[in-house]
From TrEMBL:
This is Ral GTPase activating protein catalytic subunit alpha 2. Residues 50-78 have a biased composition (Basic and acidic residues). It comes from the Eukaryota. GO terms for cellular component: cytoplasm; nucleus. GO terms for biological process: regulation of small GTPase mediated signal transduction. Coiled coil: none annotated. It comes from Ursus americanus. Residues 1181-1389 form the Rap-GAP domain. The lineage of its organism: Eukaryota, Metazoa, Chordata, Craniata, Vertebrata. The keyword Membrane does not apply.
């Protein structure tokens, strides 16, 4: 061999080395190494190109061999066996004849590289044809290594050498024959072909690469493509082939194809398919034109296509009519395979318009994120598009990946690949496999050529002269490689069949990603025009429909087919499918939904979300009954893989359909039965019975919540439609019983549903008068039932649920008329005891009192509170059995870094939880006392509590707000009462009558009270004033006199001291005192008027002298009085009544009121304290007044019109459609922001954030809606301010009239934890999509996938937004909801007041 390398004729001798037996395979390997060096490195002389004269002689000789070669080629069979001469065609013989010269004739023969390569290809194939020796592993290994060495040379030739058409054809023919000969499975399946298995992956990969590369360089005839199809379609039992096929079809999507596999959504002109074009002469290739797979729904295009098909393939149509119409094959050469196809289903052919000069139109903008694969974008100079490497649209929602049960835990990814769609690990990969087909710089430049260049010519595969990658070549190759396996439903191996359909789903997912990323805004500043071309997402329909009819052994593939059918038809359809396609689709779905195979039911229910019903496809209501039945069958099966949540979501989305679609058909499951039952009542009854059953028996927590929400939506629908459905009471019974359920997440959903029904209390009363009162009784009895366990529970959720029940009871009390609350409660136990029946309000206060003082306060009194047994009646069963649910709440794990903070928060949480229930009960009682029966007042629902502060009407301090100056005023003092109420006493001047001076009027007293229920202000006047006729000279306002009080004369006072003349009054007084108060008597005295015994040590003479002195003094005094009476100068004028004096003290009347109220008494001083007015108190008081007395929420509302894909267009909308405006009007009433005194939610009064806004309020909650169309957008600053207000809200309502799904990334914000997207659908119904962060808990009453009528939409959306906002806020540590003001008062008094108490005597 070494000697032969230096000889010109050595190549002829070396070829014989390939014919050596397997025992001499080592020699063959050395020969292969020689050829490797000749071909790839040092080219010998005989491989150089011959002179032109010699070439002309060779051409003349060529004509002599052409006829015989063509005959030999035509007589070849379809199956080839291993032999030593099977590959020796004209190329081989001519090359040998040209190279067979003796050294004596010419030692410098130049045979040419192409001839040498052809001879090498033919002879090297013999290595693969040697019979392997599996009995000798060493020989088998050496033979495999030799074959791999040859394949490596083939690969290097494919990628590095320039070969002409004949060499390429020889290469492809050799690879096909090698593949066919080596990879044929032995007839005895038990024999394992180790030789074929060792070469399978590399051989299939080399064949694929060679075929793709050849079509980029030379024109490959249709006959050779047919041969390629025949070989590979017969080898589909090889899993390595399937893996390589999958890898290359995905390669096209991610690398050269990009935006080329697209269809025109506008219905392109019908052209000839690729299969027709392949029939042309190999040397005269026609330009490739074809139709779009997704334009099959266009009536004009479909009709023209059918005419062309009928005229061109009449014989084939006759054969196809005998087969199932829905079983269309995806084979690219279906004409030869006689595969049945439907005239309405889309073909698997490439879409290109008729005008080849418009090839540049295929280079459309797209964004494709596929792992780490490099993405190519083909850009149009007209559109000015560019590639966005980061953000992309995820189609997970359309595929069913974003539902309540399977929510991803990653927080809001921009776009991520589905982990289930990654390339399987068993796919054989090569380290340089991607480099095989890597674009050269020339190819890359071809892809971005201008339209002038592409207009002159097209690629070789389309009959032109351009080589390398081009849009048309990429599209044609992708389509052909996709169908090169033939009809995939003919694959015999069930495992491989399932794997193929798994790859098809992966491919469809990539196409869906491409579609979602077409025509999206790159800078988020303007919306691009709709795409001209779209991916053919329905191109696999024929394969999928046929797969569903396969035997049960292909079950896994059938499940994959159903999964892809559901994903394909639950997307928004760019072009509506035609009627034939829909007939086939509905038949397949009907058979699947009525199948006896539980796995098929599970697959359809799991992957066909309610989005299907919102698309409004013609005739979709035919499947409603099937879906209800299938969902019921799924729910009746309790296995881990059963999609209960998805089934109940489907049922819940259909609760409004019976009232809208009056004639819903119930198709029979037996195809032979032609009778179809229609009607809405039967469907409604069947549907509600399923929901009622699963609302009490469903074991899945999320599914149980969805069932309860669905019942709530149905109740509202029936009440709004006034149908008086008899099952309304049963539904309320289920919801009421669920309140006492042990799982607090489920119970909370039931509580939310009852809170929703507050707004429908009038409808409930019209349905049955006692029903609203019955709901209040249910709440009272449930609170009394759960209170004992919740008081001593260490679980915070138990206490919080009692709080939710108390607040729900408060809402019902405020909504119901007082007459209803005063209606006596009638229970069976009370009637048996013949006791007086207390009103409902009495029982409400009793249970509130038990919440404050403890559940065991009045346990010794029977029937002090309502019990569950008292609720028993023919219409209500309080002991309805409830099945347990599996708790799905994940266990929270915290890092050691956060442990310290968590312990602090946990301690505070425990401290607060102890007073949670009593504090809420006190607030509810105070709220009822202050507002029951008179809300709203004249000021409207926006005003619930006083807006007056200590600085208003203060004559001593004219300050616009609370300040230190106000605190220094002498007419203001602040007190704290019972450690729970803050009271401010302010003396203000009273307005006197007209013409009177300011100083001549009395003062008013203003009392400002801040307690657990809010802030109140009272103004008082003095009603006891001067007597009439004794007014001051300036006069008094007679309004101050007590009505009906008559003044008395002064003479009437003389009767009070009338006595008998000569009586000793003092003696009688002392006698009376001694009789009534004997403790005043001395021990030696009997009476006080009796003289006491003389003192000791005093004799009678001394006593006599003392008496004489006293008498002498008395005589002198009498003498003096007589002299004074006789002297006129000593007389005194008569005494007159003094005139009243005006009180001048700045706090006099406040102190007088405090005295009248008894606050200054000694027994009250220990509960009533005067506060120091310092800066600390002022700061805390201002902070307290800034707190809202009601629960507040701010909700953002966006309007998206058709075609809007960027934030600027969306935020610039100044108005919406009429349906949108009606919806916004139903959310609340419009308020003027300049005068609005309720919750503002950050909106300004100066008009910079709009003039009006929708506002909704009850006595317990306030909601302001930040509506984008109400805010100005006339400048960049206005847009920035609008985005700041809207983006900072936690809950977003998105009204989308766009034909594409809403992308959360359009509005860039770190907030927006919950997005509620509303899509209008047919018949005034609306599809609701809810996306939320994973950590946000479940909330209702609406759920993701709900479909509701227009009447219910505003109220349900408002209630859902409030619950969503609560769910988001509950994630904040130590968050308190409605009782926030009460808690602030408690903390305020304990922390501030006790340290600043000023004690005054």
């Amino acid at each position: 061999v070494k000697y032969a390398r230096h000889m010109h004729s050595s190549s002829i001798y070396s070829f014989s080395a390939f014919l050596l037996p397997s025992c001499d395979i080592a020699v063959t390997r050395k020969v292969v190494q020689v050829y490797r060096k000749w071909i790839l490195q040092d080219k010998p002389v005989f491989m150089e190109e011959p002179d032109k004269k010699e070439a002309s002689l060779e051409d003349a000789e060529k004509l002599g061999f052409s006829e015989t070669d063509s005959k030999e080629t035509s007589t070849d069979g379809s199956r080839h066996k291993r032999s030593s001469s099977w590959g020796r065609t004209y190329s081989f013989t001519s090359a040998v004849s040209r190279g067979c010269v003796t050294e004596e004739e010419n030692k410098n023969v130049k045979a040419g590289a192409q001839a040498m390569l052809q001879v090498f290809l033919t002879n090297a194939a013999n290595v693969f044809l040697l019979e392997p020796c599996p009995e000798v592993p060493m020989l088998l290994k050496e033979q495999v290594d030799a074959c791999k060495a040859v394949l490596i040379i083939f690969r290097r030739m494919i990628m590095e050498l320039t070969m002409n058409k004949k060499t390429w054809e020889q290469m492809l023919q050799i690879l096909l024959r090698i593949t066919e000969a080596v990879m044929q499975k032995p007839k005895d399946k038990q024999i394992k072909d180790l030789f074929a298995q060792s070469l399978a992956g590399l051989l299939f990969r080399t064949l694929m690469v060679a075929w793709i590369r050849a079509n980029l360089c030379v024109y490959i005839s249709r006959e050779l493509w047919d041969d390629f199809l025949g070989v590979l379609s017969s080898l589909t039992e090889w899993e390595e082939l399937i893996n390589e096929w999958s890898a290359f079809r995905l390669f096209f999507l991610s690398y050269p194809l990009s935006g080329c596999v697209l269809d025109s959504p506008k219905g392109a002109t019908v052209g000839r398919s690729f299969s027709l074009s392949w029939r042309s002469h190999p040397d005269v290739a026609e330009p490739m034109r074809s139709r779009s797979a997704t334009t099959s729904g266009a009536p004009g295009a479909e009709k023209a296509r059918n005419i062309v098909r009928q005229k061109a393939t009449e014989v084939e149509e006759c054969q196809q009519s005998e087969n199932a119409p829905a079983a269309e094959s995806g084979c690219l050469v279906a004409e030869q395979q006689h595969i049945s196809r439907s005239s309405s289903t889309p073909d698997l052919l490439s879409p290109y318009p008729a005008n080849d000069s418009c090839c540049v139109s295929y280079l459309v903008t797209f964004i494709l994120v596929i792992g780490n694969i490099l993405i190519f974008s083909y850009l149009l100079s007209q559109t000015g598009s560019s590639v966005v490497p980061g953000e992309s649209i995820s189609s997970d929602t359309a595929l069913g990946y974003n539902n309540e049960a399977e929510l991803s835990m990653n927080p809001w990814p921009a776009c991520e690949e589905d982990p289930e769609l990654n390339t399987p690990t068993d796919v054989v990969t090569d380290s340089d496999a991607r480099h095989w087909l890597q674009l050269s710089p020339t190819d890359a430049s071809n892809l971005t050529d201008s339209s002038e260049c592409l207009a002159d010519d097209c690629s070789i595969i389309a009959g032109g002269n351009l080589t390398g990658w081009h849009p048309d070549s990429a599209a044609v190759l992708w389509r052909r490689i996709l169908g090169i396996l033939g009809d995939v439903n003919n694959i015999q191996s069930p495992k491989i069949h399932a794997k193929v359909f798994g790859y098809l789903y992966e491919l469809w997912y990539k196409l869906a990603k491409i579609r979602d990323n077409l025509a999206i805004s790159l800078d988020n500043q303007s919306s691009p025009s709709p795409p001209v071309l779209i991916p053919p997402l329905r191109m696999f329909a024929s394969w999928l429909f046929k797969a569903t009819t396969l035997p049960n052994e292909y079950k896994e593939g059938k499940l994959q087919a159903y999964r892809l059918i559901c994903a394909m038809m639950t997307r928004r359809q760019d072009v509506l499918p035609n009627s034939d396609f829909l007939v086939h689709f509905y038949l397949v779905m009907h058979l699947g939904l009525t199948s006896e195979d539980q796995d098929i039911l599970n697959t359809i229910i799991r992957h066909c979300p309610p989005r299907f019903f919102s698309l409004g496809l013609p005739g979709f209501s035919m499947l409603v009954g099937d879906f209800i039945t299938a969902a019921a069958r799924v729910l009746s099966t309790d296995t881990p893989a059963t999609p209960h949540s998805e089934a109940l979501t489907i049922l819940g989305s259909l609760v409004c359909f019976p009232n809208t679609y009056r004639e819903i058909p119930l198709l029979q499951s037996v195809p032979e039965v032609k009778e179809v039952i229609t009607g809405s009542e039967d469907v409604k009854h069947y549907l509600i019975n399923i929901l009622l059953k699963n609302a009490t028996e469903e074991p899945n927590e999320c599914a149980r919540c969805i069932a309860i929400c669905s019942l709530g939506v149905w109740i509202c629908e029936e009440l709004a439609q006034c149908t008086s459905h008899p099952q309304l009471k049963e539904a309320i019974n289920v919801i009421g019983v669920t309140l006492k359920f042990s799982n607090k997440i489920v119970a909370q959903v039931a509580c939310d549903v009852l809170q929703l029904l507050v707004s429908y209390w009038e409808k409930l009363q019209m349905f049955e008068t006692s029903l609203p009162r019955k709901i209040a009784e249910i709440l009272v009895a449930t609170i009394a039932f759960l209170l004992p366990s919740a008081e001593y529970s260490s679980v915070e959720a138990d206490k919080k649920f009692i709080v939710s029940l108390l607040l729900c009871l408060l809402d019902w009390c405020m909504a119901l008329p007082v007459s209803t609350l005063l209606h006596p409660v009638s229970t069976a136990a009370l009637e048996e005891q013949h006791s007086s029946r207390a009103p409902l309000l009495d029982y409400i206060y009793r249970v509130l009192h038990c919440c404050v003082c403890g559940s065991n306060t009045y346990t010794q009194q029977s029937h002090y509170t309502l019990t569950l047994a008292d609720l028993s009646s023919p219409d209500y069963d309080p002991f309805l059995p409830l099945a347990n649910v599996k708790n799905s709440e994940p266990v929270q794990y915290h890092s050691s870094a956060d442990l310290g903070n968590l312990l602090t928060v946990e301690e505070e949480r425990k401290r607060r939880s102890l007073e949670l229930i009593p504090l809420t009960a006190r607030m509810v009682m105070a709220h009822l006392v202050n507002h029951l029966g008179h809300f709203p007042l004249r000021g409207g629902p926006a005003v619930l509590h006083s807006l007056v502060s200590e600085n208003h009407d203060n004559a001593h301090a004219e300050a616009p707000e609370l300040s230190s100056e106000v605190f220094r005023s002498p007419n203001l003092q602040l007190f704290v009462l019972n450690d729970s109420t803050l009271i401010s006493y302010l003396q203000t001047p009273s307005e006197g009558p007209a013409g009177s001076s300011q100083g001549s009027t009395l003062s008013d007293v203003r009392v400002i009270v801040r307690d657990i229920s809010g802030k109140y202000s009272w103004d008082g006047k003095v009603l006891y004033g001067p007597l009439e006729g004794c007014l001051a000279p300036s006069g008094r306002n007679p309004a101050f006199l007590i009505s009906g009080w008559q003044p008395q004369g002064l003479g009437a006072q003389k009767d009070f001291s009338q006595t008998e003349e000569g009586d000793d009054v003092l003696d009688k007084l002392l006698e009376n005192i001694g009789h009534t108060s004997p403790e005043c008597l001395l021990p030696s005295q009997l009476n006080l008027n009796e003289p006491s015994p003389p003192p000791r040590g005093m004799n009678r003479d001394q006593e006599k002298e003392i008496i004489e002195v006293i008498l002498r003094q008395n005589a002198q005094e009498d003498d003096y009085i007589q002299r004074c009476n006789s002297d006129s100068a000593m007389k005194v004028a008569s005494q007159e009544q003094p005139s009243p004096v005006e009180p001048r003290g700045p706090f006099y009347f406040c102190r007088l009121l405090l005295d009248d109220l008894g606050m200054n008494s000694w027994d009250r001083r220990k509960n009533f304290h005067l506060l120091k007015k310092n800066s600390k108190l002022l700061r805390e008081l201002k902070n307290l007044d800034s707190r809202q007395c009601r629960e507040t929420h701010k909700i953002a509302v966006f309007y998206i019109a058709e075609g809007q894909e960027d934030k600027c267009s969306i935020l610039s909308n100044e108005r919406g459609s009429q349906a949108y405006e009606d919806f916004v009007a139903g959310l609340g009433w419009e308020v003027d922001l300049s005068t609005h005194c309720g919750f503002m939610g950050g909106l300004q009064r100066n008009g910079s954030t709009g003039q009006t806004a929708p506002y909704y309020a009850t006595s317990t909650v306030e909601v302001i809606f930040h509506v984008s169309t109400r805010m100005p957008s006339d400048s960049d600053d206005s847009l920035t301010k609008k985005l700041r207000h809207l983006g900072n809200d936690e809950v977003h309502i998105v009204w989308s009239e766009h034909s594409r799904d809403y992308r959360r990334g359009i509005i860039p914000t770190a907030f927006g934890d919950v997005s509620i997207i509303i899509y209008p659908v047919k018949n005034h119904m609306f599809f609701i999509a809810i996306t939320k962060k994973p950590e946000v808990p479940f909330f209702g009453p609406l759920f993701d996938g709900a479909i509701v009528s227009g009447k219910l939409l505003p109220s349900l959306i408002c209630a859902t937004c409030i619950n969503a906002s609560r769910a988001v806020k509950c994630l904040i540590p130590l968050y308190q909801s409605l009782y926030l003001f009460a808690l602030s008062i408690r903390n305020f008094t304990f922390v501030i007041f006790f340290s600043d108490i000023s004690w005054h005597a």
